């Protein structure tokens, strides 16, 4: 375990391992998202009340899951950077923020599009929607704060602190529908526990959720590797890599 | 070096802990305002202000929807199975509005205890099912709405 953490300190090691893993994650992501989209949009049954607008769930739920998971990963990276001074963690956190912001935006947008036919409104200031909007602002804040500092170190520290403090919003988003009266219904999709929908609807949703996670991992690997090259550009191993004309460049 | 790392960890955890306490206390203080709507029983107990824009929510009581055949006027009762609230409204309803369905109504509580709605929003629960399953349930003598309210009540009992 300790040896593994020590290895994580080495961007060179991560660059090599990440390069080996990323094609698999990209293939899984594209395959699963394509399969889930066709299955969910064309073959899964429509809902007895909502009809076909129910199918928005196949985009809404995976993006909403990722929006929250990415923020937690970003905060974990922030902790690793602040406490153990792992630079690689900060590189990963810096590339995760825009992906998370995009996922949050898509979740809010797909929710609004879904809200019009089902609820009768595209926006309401209920606890779930508002806490999700705060998450979007937190992502934008983390991105902006990092850029606001002239030094890399200063921006990294400020962004890490905001990510770690902002993680308090995640349980609020998750439990908002249980703690308060909201227009948004409680969670339908759980990995364990009772299923709120039959297998024919649940299975394509699971495929989409796993596919979106693979997409996030693949994109993070690819972007972190570029970030490593950008920050470690002057290091000897990078120059040797360029001279060799090694793969992935 | 080790001690320094521990110190940094404690500072970070302390900071996050303090922020969590601050947010928790704020939400606790605002708990009444974060709720999107008043339930009929809260209104019956006089917790809701009269003639000010508020939201009320609950289930549309089965058999209480009265439509005026010549206009868009509609009256129905919203219930939380404890208290009832009479609502009247004039306008277009969302597609999901029906008896036994959850709704949130936006409007003003009148002095006579009736609720004049300016907007009706449909709430739906977390259960989805294909039309064939819903039909099979009905043929077996259950309505999907019964099935869901029962489940909702058993959930409430779990808590």
From TrEMBL, chain A:
Main subcellular location of this protein, as a coarse class: membrane
Compartments it resides in: Cell inner membrane; Membrane
InterPro entries: Cyt_c_assembly, Cyt_c_biogenesis_CcmC, Cyt_c_biogenesis_CcsA/CcmC
Recorded superkingdom: Bacteria
Ranges annotated as spanning the membrane: 21-44, 56-83, 95-117, 129-149, 161-181, 201-221
Domain Cytochrome c assembly protein: 22-184
One Pfam family from the record: Cytochrom_C_asm
Keywords annotated in UniProt: Cell inner membrane, Cell membrane, Cytochrome c-type biogenesis, Membrane, Transmembrane, Transmembrane helix, Transport
Entry membrane topology: Multi-pass membrane protein
Family from the record: Belongs to the CcmC/CycZ/HelC family.
Purpose of the protein: Required for the export of heme to the periplasm for the biogenesis of c-type cytochromes.
PANTHER family reported in the protein's UniProt record: CYTOCHROME B_B6 PROTEIN-RELATED, HEME EXPORTER PROTEIN C
UniProt protein name: Heme exporter protein C
Taxonomic placement: Bacteria, Pseudomonadati, Pseudomonadota, Gammaproteobacteria, Oceanospirillales
Automatic annotation (TrEMBL), chain B:
Domain of life: Bacteria
Keyword Signal in annotation: no
Keyword Metal-binding included in the entry's annotation: yes
Membrane association type: Single-pass type II membrane protein
Regions of this protein lying in the Cytoplasmic compartment: 1-8
Keywords annotated in UniProt: Cell membrane, Cytochrome c-type biogenesis, Heme, Iron, Membrane, Metal-binding, Signal-anchor, Transmembrane, Transmembrane helix
Region of interest called Disordered, as start-end residue ranges on this chain: 140-159
Matching Pfam families: CcmE
Predominant place of localization: membrane
Compartments (UniProt record): Cell membrane; Membrane
Extracellular compartment residues: 30-159
Binding site for heme: 124, 128
Protein purpose: Heme chaperone required for the biogenesis of c-type cytochromes. Transiently binds heme delivered by CcmC and transfers the heme to apo-cytochromes in a process facilitated by CcmF and CcmH.
HAMAP family xrefs: CcmE (MF_01959)
PANTHER family named in the record: CYTOCHROME C-TYPE BIOGENESIS PROTEIN CCME HOMOLOG, MITOCHONDRIAL
Assigned protein family: Belongs to the CcmE/CycJ family.
Name of the protein in its database record: Cytochrome c-type biogenesis protein CcmE
Organism: Halomonas dongshanensis
Lineage: Bacteria, Pseudomonadati, Pseudomonadota, Gammaproteobacteria, Oceanospirillales
